[in-house]
Amino acid sequence: MSDHDNWQIRQASAHFLRCFQGVHKFLFSQEQAESSLSIAISLLSDDRREVSNAATSALTGILATMPQSALEDLVAKYIRIANKSIKKKKKKSADTEMSQEEAEEKAVKEKQRGKRQQRSVFVLCAVVMGRPYDTPPYIPEALAALSKHSFEQRASMGVRDEVKRVCSEFKRTHTDNWEAHKKQFTQEQLEALEDVVSTPHYYA
Asked: What's the whole-model pTM score?
């Protein structure tokens, strides 16, 4: 049902997965746990914000039961995907007309790139949201990777807004003991986080 044509059914699938996984997580086999993770991640790139939001909630619950070593591997994997999904600026060349077939192929590739970007960014967002009161080593790495997408003008507004929200929420929930949490960051990682939190999104 997670790939149903009706977005409301896809959303309901994500909600069901969150509840079902939460109740049965300790009874799942390795294969079932991996299947739940795969379904949740696949829904993150949905065109409907309602579906991707529901999938993010489901994924946050799934990640809460994963061992740290597995989370570190997951973060490293999706940081690589997120970095590769950032569209590089191409040097302007002489105007050449594209055929309809070439234009359609370009549009398909751009849509695929956008979905990879949204999926990978939202995975990292879910990881960060799953640690509201502590700062394991992979969190600063995830936040630094996310910060790049906050200022990527060719990223969708949904992606940029989610990065801004997650970074701000992380800073808010860690405020009380911020001096201790800061020690887990490099200076570059701290500056990347502060840039996102302190900068309003008034660009298009």
From this structure: 0.89
- The alpha-helical segments, DSSP class H, found in 44-186 are 49-63, 68-85, 100-129, 138-150, 157-173, 178-182
**Cα–Cα distance, 66 to 52 (Å, whole number):** 21
Residue in this structure with the two tokens 């309602």, named with its chain if needed: 50
For residue 91, the 8-state DSSP code is P
The phi, psi pair for 13, rounded to 5°, reads -60, -40
Location of structure tokens 């808010």: 172
Which tokens belong to 91? 């040097």
Report yes or no: 164 and 148 within 8 Å, Cβ to Cβ: no
Question: What is d(CA 51, CA 54) in angstroms, rounded to the nearest whole number?
Answer: 5
151 pLDDT tier (thresholds 50, 70, 90): confident
Torsion of CA 37, 166, 172, 18, to 10 degrees: -30
Residue linked to tokens 């405020």:
175
Could you tell me which residues come within 8 angstroms of residue 25 by beta carbon, excluding any fewer than 6 positions away?
Answer: 33, 62, 65
Rounded Cα gap, residues 11 and 186, in angstroms: 38
- Angle at Cα 34 formed by Cα 33 and Cα 39, nearest 5°? 100
Report d(CA 155, CA 123) in Å as an integer. Answer: 16
pLDDT band, very low/low/confident/very high, at 196 (cuts 50, 70, 90): very high
